[in-house]
Protein: Cytoplasmic dynein 2 heavy chain 1
Organism: Mesorhabditis spiculigera
Amino acid sequence: MVGIPRGTTIEGLRFGDLVDVAPSILSHLDELKALNGRAHGEVAIREAITELEMWAAHTQFSLVDYKHTNGQTIKIIKEWKEAINSVKDSEALLQSLKNSPYYGQFSDRTQLWEGRLGELDVCLGQMADIQRKWVYLEPIFGRGALPHEASRFARVDADFRLILADVAKDARLISLCSRTGLRRNLEQVVEQLGRCQRALAQFLQEKRAAFPRFYFLGDDDLLEILGQSTNPLVIQAHLRKLFQGIDKVVFGEGNLTLVAMVSADGEVVLLDAPVRLVPQVETWLQHLSDRMASTLRLLTVDALRDDGLNPGKYPSQVLCLAEEVRFCRECERALDSSSLPSLHTSLQHQLTQLTGLQPRDEGLLRLKLKALILDLIHHIDVVQQLITAQARSTAEWTWQRQLRFYLDGDKVVVRQIDARFDYTYEYQGNAPKLVHTPLTDKCYLTLTQAMSMGLGGNPFGPAGTGKTESVKALGALFGRQVLVFNCDEGIDVVSMGRIFVGLVQCGAWGCFDEFNRLEQTVLSAVSQHIQAIQDAIHHRSPSVTLGQYTARVDPNSAIFITLNPAGKGYGGRQKMPDNLKQLFRPVVMSVPDNELIAETLLFAEGFREAKPLARKTVAVFSNEASIVVQALLLNTLSKLTFADSRRFDALIQDIFYTGGPEKKDGKESMAPFGALLEPLQKSAEEMGIRLGDRQLHKLFQLHEQLRQRIGVVVVGPSQSGKSTLWRVLKRALIISGQRLACYELNPKATTRTRLLGHMDMDTREWTDGIITMAARNVIKDTQVHTWIVCDGDIDPEWVEALNSVLDDNRLLTMPSGERIQFGANVNFLFETHHLQFASPATVSRLGMLLTSEEDVSPRDVVEKWVRAQGPEESPEIAGWLEDSFYRILQIVDQRQTTAGIRLPPIALTQNGLSLLGGVRSKPEFLVALYRGFAGSVPLDARKELAAAVFEGEHLPDASQPDLVYFDDRTRMLQMYTEDTGQGLTREQVEGQGQAPPLVLTPNAQATTSLIQAWLTDASHPSICVVGPEGSGKASLMQNSLQTLPLSRTATLSCSAQTSAHTLLHTLHQHTVQVSGAGGRVLRPKDGGGQLIVLLRGLNQTSPDRYGTSQLHALLQQLLTYHGFFDDALEWIGLEGIQFVVTMALEGAGRSKTT
């Protein structure tokens, strides 16, 4: 075209040849441009097709071992999402080629690939679906469930294992396309697995219909019971989930019958007839339910025949029920005979006798007496109300509005006004009773009248007013099973429908706590179910239809809801739809009468002077006053700041010790913990910590809070000793002989679904989260005390799902309808720096321990550091620290600034000590001290800091203290200069790749030297480099990292889209997972060394609406607990991994970092 001779090669082409044909080139310029564009276009298509071929040749499934129930280990596929996304990306690449004008001549090859990828996409989707169902069903059918479907599943199992075996031989994704008939085979397996799954669902539904309490078990638990229906260990593990008062049962000879039921507090109730264990588990469980009710009914009749009270002969529930019936009988006689004053005197005398019987231990008899005393105090109050109202007959309103118990034949009935209810004899165990107050009386009256009209009840009001507890207490008075469900946005209409079916069939009460946390659409749809149930109960209909279920109706069922007000500090609450409001009678739960409650509880504990103690909390008798002081100190001091705690001490001194012996020391609240003192001291000694009186007080307070409540939150600023407190206590309890285990996590380091679990809306399968997994594990062994430690920010998105766990219910409810009941062996321990976003509903449920910066002294940290130094260190270092460290620390604390973050004194102390290891002389010590502190103060304050540090020392140049270093060779202070920079070798320059070589200015030398000192420290501390944009943070860091032997660097550049998953993916790319003595760990690849993970621009990540960055939360967990939970919810530790971050100063697009 342009006249260049034919046969000229690129290698033989000369510039002169082009000059000779320049006119021709210019005349054909347009044609040449078009030809060049076509060449580029065709090259792009060829490269894309080559890329596809390379992808097909090298992209493989990620395989993992799976243990089949037949004992065989086979390979199954993991990371389905990654494989499917890979195919989608390839399909998108092919689609983009079609837009090219040069696509035509490559259409045959691209259409071939299009067909392959389309086929692969379909097959992958089917295989992922099959494997998910197969992994779920295989253990079930392997245990022998559903024998009539076993042959069908066996065929499916064999077909799918054959496919998996082929994949294991050739793990390339593209190899699926070469298997003849694979797609048809997969379609058949999908269809057959669907049949198996439907058969299983039908089987479970039949079992739940036969024994409705199964509705409140998850599928896995139910299948375990069905598969081992006569195994005593399995029976004991699941009984407490089915019967709220039965903790375990006593087996007869040969484990063939059940002869008694046992409460969690050890109360044994012999059944009136043994229950024979038969393979049909639903049959013998129903027999157990029947025998439970008939036993309690007969015992109640026997107790009423006895002349006196016999606490040792009858269960607590029977004793209290018989006394209720007796009281009503005697009160109505007194009303008819106008002898109420003499009845009042008789009851007072009986109260004196019972309080005098209080045993010293916390055994079963004490629990029974406390329950009887609480009821007796209420009876006295009722008689006093009748006397005040001058009642003369049983028709008086004052009497009619009371809950009244009567024996009708051999059954007890409960009346209130014109409402009548059957007592249903559900065994309640020895659960603590609720104190009767005017508020509970009003609540009971509203709820019973609502039920008599076929409606539900709706106690509403602020947190801590006893809404849920009042419903539970009324249910206990009626002998009902009360099931509490904590509502959140994870529960949908189908889940609620399944719960409703279980409730109406087993005659239980359902209390839906924080009902208005459900989604608005769910609230509206649920109202139809509730109305249908209420109509059926009111009209005594035998059955009700709820969606796809038709359930028989037990008229003793009822539905209650409790609410916190929408807004007013309660996040995530919806406004109740009007059609739902009209189904429930509301009752306002205001602040209860705390004085009356305190008085009643003091009486129940055996106090003779309960009224003045409760009303004024003043010194009455010295022994009782000291107990009150202990309670006040333990439960109040923990919530106060350092300054307020001193004022409270003074207040206690003024009120309780005025006119009496003065309180001489601060040991009042320590008295009950003498046995723990020695283990605490040993624990602290092992950890290199010195415990002062204030730390001991905090430890005792934490111990007492954990004893009193299931949930405790430790609140305080960073470095105020929060983690150290519970770790010292944990070790002390282990030393004292207690078996104690911990689950530790940052709840904001992962998604809500991975934390709490989630329901697959397509398959209705439940997948556990970290907390639900931990919950299942801790209830398996009640002999081990377990702390679930949630160290991180608290917000309503996740913590309110635990509200029913944190109150007296101790119950974790899940959208699947499953319920996990925690015993006294479990505590949730929260650690956070504020409760800004926690609602009152959560805070009111938690015990609280407040820490402050004053609780931990920098001197303690320094002394611990000195003790940890080896004998080779300079013996004079302690004196040098005493001379200057604390004085310098005060200056730094006043002038500090680090990217807008104020570091607490303890963090500053650790910075100051970070470079002092191994110093031999005073000048070396001063340089290390200055460099450790200098990074925490702004540039304009460095000279002031240097003047204070180097006081009395001669500096080479006092105007540039940052450039001073200690020369090991001359043992003198020197300055970094242009000449002291070690020039880069050729290898170092080549190792920097495309980046230009770093010119080591004096400032760069000083900074690099500081970073290298931290990087080579034996403790491998995490490092944060802060500076403005363009100040060379990353370059300095890369330069420092290049000098480290046996280390590799993994760099992650952070942006608003960077998540915790991104960091974990980076870790997995550069590490290998191995099994160690303590479990599975990630270690650097290629046989060891140190992996340094560099996070650039850490504060560019985007926080959520509560101000928390998921990446920051994960990083905190990795630094604090050195591990994370993987997708299989297994804890993965870290070894040989160090984290280094860079951050720009706060500004646009940068989040605040804590």
User: Anything to note?
Assistant: The chain has a mean pLDDT of 82. The longest strand covers residues 268-276. The domain at 452-591 is CATH 3.40.50.300 (Rossmann fold).
